[in-house]
Amino acid sequence: MHNKFITDLMNLPDLVATDLIQTEEYLVFVADYRKNYVKCPVCGKKVDKVHDRKVQVVQDTPLRDKKVAIRLLKKRYRCSHCGKRAIPKRIESITKYSRKTERFKMNLLKQTDSRDYSRVAKEHGLSYTSIQNSVRSKLDTLIKEAQLATLDEVEAISIDEFAIKKKHKYAVALTDPINNKLIDILTSRKKDDLIKYFNTWPKKLKEQIKYFSMDMWSPYKAVAETVFPNAKIVVDKFHLVTTVNNALDKLRIKEQDKQTAANRKKFYKSRLTLLMAGEDLDDNGHQRLIEIFKLSPALEKAWELKEEFRDLLQIPDVKESIEALNHWYKNVSQAKLNLFYKAKGTLKRWEQHIINYFKTRITNGFAEGLNNKIKLIKRIGYGVPKVENLKRRVFLSLLSI
To answer: What is the dihedral of CA 13, 14, 18, 22, to 10 degrees?
Structure first.
């Protein structure tokens, strides 16, 4: 007979407790199967004849500041109908060959969200490898489930690279910009590698993608056109602003070099102020710009063009947005600033995809926020720069567990 109080305390749905042994360090639940039979995999009949028994000790989540172990009498059965022998009993609480309960693995997983494996291992008297294997097996299952759920409803894809090792190695974050969900993290941003990855997706899934949000990088455009026949390419708003900001900053450097030593210092100190949104400037910021604009009328023209471009991206009406963009082109031509004329040429080449942004308002905003999270995870450590480890850490930070 099992002890109901101890069984309730153990709280594992497919096991019952027959005894509880307490030591200075451990609570040991002596347990048996709640249902002492299996279904024969050969003939399908109910089987309750025991073939052999073996004691298995499984570590469980700590309780009342004590480590917990489940001492399970593991059984295999034999079928008296067809003669099949050594039929194992499968239970949900403990996976095959595991020495930890599933809830203990989940508990370890939660702890490693903010701490390294070594510290968690030391607290539980386990090895680093044991923690790593348990966490990875549990997390990989959760990641796969999350990816399937996301892909089931995805209509738009955002693609954005981030540096694993600056100027040497880049990875790619794939996200759903409409539902703000991570789809995957890939180890390469090369066109052929991305096409190979997307070609593993079912044809139906590729056909359901309506929008492909990206920066102005030709290999991404080639991937979208090759893999997603129904997708409209959308240029990300943040990269449009970056293109114009880069032109402004290069002009600032050019104008700075013409100045005296004292004025060069003023220009340098104003580099971030120039890139700030006009409405966010305080009195000191405005005064700083007034001083350098007196020294460089060209920089004032460039700043005004930057602000005008930012404003046109906020216009909600598609037709008005397009008209404002064309008006900006004219103002760039009239300003006769070579660096802005180059930026205008870049935007002209991507104009149809910019108009797709006006129509959809899809951005890489979630991906940009994700990149900041990735930078934080990399800074803390956590076993990166291995991309697979980084992927696990990023998903862990996003999953609701």
So the answer is: -60
